[in-house]
Amino acid sequence: MKSRNIIRDFPIFTVAILLAGAFAALTAVKGNKIIAIAEAAVIVALLVFTLIFYIATKKKKQKLVMRLTRGLNFAGGEDSADFPIPVLVTDDKGKLLWNNQLFETVISENVDYTDLKNVIESRSETLRDAETSGVNLKIEDKLFTVFSQKSESNKIILYFIDNTKYREVMDTFMSTRPAVMLIAIDGMDDIERNYRDSESAAIRSEIENMIEAWLQEYDCMKTKRGENSFAIVTQMSDINSMAEKRFNILDMVRDYTFRDEPMNITLSIGVGADGGIYRSERQAKQSLEMAFGRGGDQAAVKRSEEYEFFGGVSQSVERQTGVKSRIVSKAFCQTLEDCDRVIIMGHRFPDLDALGSGFGIAAVSRAYGREAYIVTDEKTALSKPLLDYMKENDFGEYIISLDEAKKLITQNTVVVITDTHVRGFMEFPEIAEMASKKVVIDHHRKTVNYIDDALIFHLDPSASSASELVAKLIKFLPKKVKIGSVVADALLSGIMLDTKNFVLRAGVDTFEAAAFLKAEGADTVRVKKLFADSINQYKIKSKIVSDAEIYKNCAISVCNEESDEIRIAAAQAADELLNIKGTDASFVVFKTAGGASISARSLGAVNVQLIMEALGGGGHQTMAAAQFKEESTDQVYKKLISEIDKK
Prior knowledge:
The protein is α/β, with parallel strands linked by helices. It contains 25 helices and 25 strands. It is 46% helix and 21% strand. It has a 6-stranded mixed β-sheet. Helix 2 runs antiparallel to helix 3 and helix 18 packs across helix 19. The protein is elongated.
């Protein structure tokens, strides 16, 4: 038996005996021998008691070890205490029962027992299932991979593998992996058209200087890809640092002025980080395309298959050119020539824009001699007045149900998706899956889960609406088509809906499209009637507006009304709330069957698309939405507030 073990295990007894011995010696020196002898007897009794207690405790511990190790299938006996890696035994609730000596030396020696207990118990369920893959656990400044084994006595044995050094090496490796960043200057075409060559050269030079000054902070290499684009090779640690600063070069360039005049120049940045230079460059190109598709003025970072977005607060730059529309029109005509019929659908709960653009495509398809139908669920459509209007004017045969559409689809059928490009947002995703030929026409900013197998993918975030894109497509058809006043009304209603009667996102092309539809016979009075509210809908909308509150320049209202018209009323209320002074954005949280939804609007100062995307939804910079299954309006409201706080 080693005396140091007694001292280590019974420090209080040891100190008491030493003090008692010193006191007895002092008493003897003072001459009181009887008292000194009595004190010596007490000391001997303490020593005997300590020795007996130590032996009994050790035997009890040995029995416990033997009992545990028998239940844990260890080799046997005290050998388990000398297991070559730290071992901890818990019950199925995570309560600490036993550990070997190495565990105390490696882990618990410098760790507070309560902290260790809390860490283990809080991760007990995860640790219990760590038989093969292991669970990473951080204790103080050390990193462990913990593997578990269940014993015959339902105890959980945890084996701790110290990976601290390996993790440090891996972190260093991951942070120094190469990454490729592509930068494009948006808006230089307009600068070159409106300024002299010397001025546009000076503007481009200042923008390049800003980029170079920004890159000096990082260990990277820059080269020019073209007159207005650059390629940068760097490492992941620099990309992570740029992400932490939200790619602040976007703000610098956006705020740039030339001779005190705002230039409306932005950057689009694509980053690829897949380990190798070749794969990273390919991902960087995909990321840059994604940034372009979302309207520019943002950075898209792609790691493996996941995207992360930064920026995107500017309005999309309007491209005043008919070149792309002509190309799409020609390609669509060729697609019509090679198909037997056309099936058209929009997003879930289709509105005036989704159905209006659909009727435009149907009219063109029929003019080119192809059967064309719009598949929708009339019970859930948000544009019932338009459907009734089209039926009253002999366009009822254009509208079919899902079952009818399934019977009509063949290998040679073209499915046209309007007003959405996201797989999960289509009204009937199964229709798209059945079709081998797809065409997408949308004006929303590009998102991750887009339809990537379309023959024609016509996405223009600078357009006001899908109806505007279809009107331009009709205008530039190789073979002129007269769509008639009824279809022109349908298209104009879609434009008026998404521009809020030509207030938001209404550019030059928007008014040109409206003028074209007017020439085709559209009537603004007839279109205005399609926006008329029922008295119940008007009451719900008024209540939503009256219940609104202002939070960080955002008007927020929560509605628990149950009505078939709640979606339309919520969207209209969100529009109305923007009229409140000092309001940059509006959000209406409303109850739906089986969950809740949010209708979001802004005037441009707040990008509601980013907020809705963070909540699992999407949309446009000034108009977006999100849907939640099996969640209450209160839960959704709290999530919304949390996202607003992050912006």
